[in-house]
Amino acid sequence: MPIEQLQVVPAEPDTVGLVTVLAKVDAPATPPRRHHLLRGSLHALRAKERMAPDANWAWLAEANVYWLRNVGGVAQLRSPPLHLDAGLTPMLRLQVAGGMGRFGHTPPTLRIGAHASTLVFLARGPAPFRLELAPADEAATTMELAQLMPARRPEDPLPADTATPELRVVAPVPASTVMLAPVKPASDSPWLWAALLGGVALMGAMAWSLLRKR
Fold first, then answer.
1. Cis omega before residue 80 (within 30°)?
2. Residue 14 counted as domain residue
3. Tens-digit pLDDT profile for residues 46-69
4. In the chain, which ranges are continuous DSSP H helix?
5. 175 within a domain of the structure (yes/no)
6. Does a structural domain hold residue 9?
7. What is the pLDDT of residues 84-134, one digit of tens each?
8. pTM of the model
9. What torsion, rounded to 10 degrees, do the Cα atoms 199, 202, 206, 207 define?
10. How many domains does the chain contain in total?
11. Nearest-CA neighbor of 20 among 57, 75, 71?
């Protein structure tokens, strides 16, 4: 799903840890470019920690995660969620500097956040309606909501008419194949010539008979 926010919630209070969030990728990921120069072994060590453990994981974010109680008169302090780029992420991985034991015996909980998407269809004619999935290489025919409903204002609610689609797996209809035997050209058949010559001879005989009667 497209993740916009990610919050790491420690299970035990008074715990702090530096976490790195990685995302599963299909192709080998390229390490993110750094716009600053690495100076000293400390900066090089931090850059090395930000690299993915293998080529199938890409670096997403890094932050200090904490849950502190009774700090400066405040009952508790929790680390805020991380803001991500809302890219499609099939799997997440959490890497903790110093090991997962920095959060106690119970590992932390991951909470993700994303905006819910609503798909609006313009249906015309009597029901039922059929939705078809277009191929990936076909040009998109989607429209903005302002184009689909020009009279609607941004603060107006969506129409109350809703429908629940029923997914059906339709087996492809096999195409019937008709095998046609090659037809030999008629001009190459001797029987055709024989029939033509026979017809000409018959017509000649009939004409000769009529002439003799006259």
1. no
2. yes
3. 544 554 456 788 888 899 999 988
4. 40-50, 145-148, 190-213
5. no
6. yes
7. 886 788 888 888 998 888 888 888 888 988 887 777 777 778 878 887 777
8. 0.47
9. 60
10. 1
11. 57
